[in-house]
Design brief:
single chain; 572 residues; alpha/beta; Glucose Oxidase, domain 1; Enzyme I, Chain A, domain 2; TIM Barrel; 3 domains; eight-stranded mixed beta sheet; eight-stranded parallel barrel; 22 helices; globular; binds phosphoenolpyruvate; binds magnesium ion
């Protein structure tokens, strides 16, 4: 028997058969040519035949897909039928004596480069051309198509990591769990899995030791995969399957602990579309509005009017409710050409987030003007916070910019250990704090959140990270303040808006540490609300003490799970 461990990123327990993602298609050697006297006509004619086969496969996948994925697949299928690629490739066989594989490879490059030269929408299609090219080459070689394997039976997908295009073809009806050997808890793959509610484990380095076809039990709450499937595992998997048939629901109104203590349950959004989904999921408001999505892929700063309209549109979904708007968080994993320096040697430790306002003040002040205008024209309770604050001077500066515009409450994100350990002084200078556990973990552990190789460090269950969450909550108590201010039942409210807030076991710990609101992807709301309802505040505090006192992140997970039987009962 073998058991491998990775970092759990989206809970669930399943039994299934391993199917691994096909490796990327290797480039045919540049000098690959047809032998002397080969029938070039016959060889060239294999190209349109292979392209038609690819088109048919993509068409079949498109029929089974929904929404955005369907559109992407339909567009890619059309690309396979486009004669410009196949005719160029056939020409290279005829005139240059290239093999069909090499000819398709080169023709794909030519078409993609041409599209890139056209810029804009056409340039974005270049990636599709390269994808189609790889599929045609695989077809010509009789290899498995790159990407997610086709299977009528549900399976456990294993991969090194997923590319954004692969995620479009990921059908949650067939893929019942996702395990990658690379990728971190904040990777694209992890975020997608959480959005889909798909059990997922990342950074399971040895997962490829399991051969295709091996039956395994996946515990994505713990992060383990084993090929010894026991009767107990069957029960766990049945509980999870039952949860899928009868999903938990969340009626809104916040989380209520077993003793009646209330915890605000909010949603993370990136724009108006997400806001609509969050409102439909009964979120009590928005705990993190990531505004930089409006700025990404832009050469220039969007104007104040455009920004105002975008914020106001998102606000319409939460009348009378709290919406916490985070000011622009550019740099590191979110570079912006007009604001950040792409040449910095260590961008995560560079001039990012709030720090960009030191040199280019107007980007922040324009944004605050737009938020103030949008808030005025709507009836949300707009809260504003700055990311990546380290010193109290920065907090004071940000708060004064907000006050000048009548923006209240004004707060900070606690993402640096510096802010966590001086939280009393920060909260003396501002109205609230929201802990960004994704960045707080990367800075506490000195581990780049984008590196799969450091995923085991980038785990918010690390006792050192939990100790800093506790330090922040203790700081808020010391800072005092009006318990009724801004309608929160805490002196100076402290929320969590990093991915940790959507992990039901960790949510209990965070509440036990003193956090009074949790903001997450809307899909996580029902499970978090359900698990919170099974503990009293005293029990949550005791579990939090155990987690902070644990030797390792793994010990913290085990200690808390042992005290939360509901997680096992639900298959989480
Ligand atoms: C965080 O760091 O936890 C956070 C919520 O911000 P982001 O993930 O956008 O950096
Ligand atoms: Mg952050």
């Amino acid at each position: 028997m073998a058991q491998y461990t990775g970092v759990p990123v989206s809970p669930g327990r399943v039994i299934g058969t391993i199917r691994s993602m096909a490796p990327p298609v290797a480039e045919p050697p540049a000098k690959e040519a047809l032998p002397e006297g080969a029938d070039r006509e016959a060889e060239a004619s294999r190209i349109p035949a292979a392209a038609s086969a690819v088109q048919a496969t993509l068409g079949r996948l498109a029929e089974r897909a929904q929404g955005e994925a369907r559109k992407i697949l339909e567009a890619t299928a059309q690309m396979a039928a486009d004669p410009s690629l196949t005719q160029t490739a056939q020409g290279l066989v005829h005139s240059g004596g290239k093999t069909p594989e090499r000819a398709v490879w080169e023709a794909g490059d030519q078409v993609a480069t041409m599209l890139e030269g056209l810029g804009g929408y056409m340039a974005e299609r270049a990636t599709d051309v390269r994808d189609v090219r790889a599929r045609i080459v695989a077809e010509l070689r009789g290899e498995q198509a790159p990407g997610i394997p086709e299977s009528e039976e549900p399976f456990v997908l294993t991969a090194i990591d997923l590319a954004p295009a692969d995620t479009a073809t990921l059908d949650p009806e067939r893929v019942i769990a996702l395990i990658t050997s690379d990728g971190g808890p904040q990777s694209h793959t992890a975020i997608l899995a959480r959005q889909l509610g798909l059990p997922a484990i990342v950074a399971a380095k040895s997962i490829h030791e399991f051969a295709d076809g091996t039956e395994v039990f996946v515990d994505a709450g713990l992060g383990t995969i084993t090929d010894e499937v026991t009767e107990e595992h069957q029960h766990f998997a049945e509980a999870w399957a039952e949860l899928q048939r009868n999903p938990l629901t969340y009626e809104g109104g916040g989380g209520v602990l077993g003793d009646g203590t209330r915890v605000r349950l909010l949603a993370n959004i990136g724009g108006a579309k997400d806001a609509a989904a969050a409102a439909a999921a009964n979120a009590d408001g928005v705990g993190l509005f990531r505004t930089e999505f409006l700025f990404l892929d832009r050469e220039d700063e969007p104007g104040v009017e455009e920004q105002t309209a975008a914020y106001a549109e998102a606000f319409t979904h939460f009348p009378g409710k709290k919406v916490v708007v985070r000011t622009i968080d550019a740099g590191a994993d979110k570079p912006l050409p007009f604001l950040t320096d792409a040449e910095e040697p260590n961008p995560a430790l560079g001039v990012r987030a709030y720090r960009t306002s030191w040199e280019k003040r107007s980007v922040l002040t324009n944004q605050l003007d737009a938020i103030a205008a949008a808030a005025q024209s709507s009836d949300v309770k707009a809260w504003v916070m700055a990311p990546m604050i380290a010193t109290v001077t920065e907090t004071e500066d940000f708060v004064s910019l907000c006050r000048e515009r009548g923006l209240e409450p004004a707060g900070i994100m606690v993402e640096t250990p510096a802010a966590a350990v001086t939280a009393d002084r920060h909260l003396g200078a501002c109205d609230f704090a929201s802990i960004g556990t994704n960045d707080l973990t990367q800075y506490t552990m000195a581990a780049d959140r984008q590196l799969g190789s450091l995923a085991h460090l980038n785990n918010p269950w690390q006792p050192s990270v939990l100790a800093l969450v506790k330090a922040t909550c203790d700081g808020a108590r010391t800072a005092g303040g009006d318990p009724e201010a801004f309608g929160e039942s805490a002196n100076k409210p402290v929320g969590v808006c990093g991915e940790a807030a959507g992990d039901p076991g960790l949510a209990v710990v965070l509440v036990g540490l003193g956090v009074n609101s949790l903001s997450m992807t809307p899909r996580s709301l029902p499970a978090v609300a359900k698990v919170l309802s099974t503990v009293t505040l005293d029990q949550a505090r005791e579990l939090a003490d155990r987690a902070v006192a644990a030797r390792t992140a793994e010990d913290a997970v085990s200690a808390v799970r042992a005290g939360l039987p509901i997680l096992g009962e639900l298959g989480l």
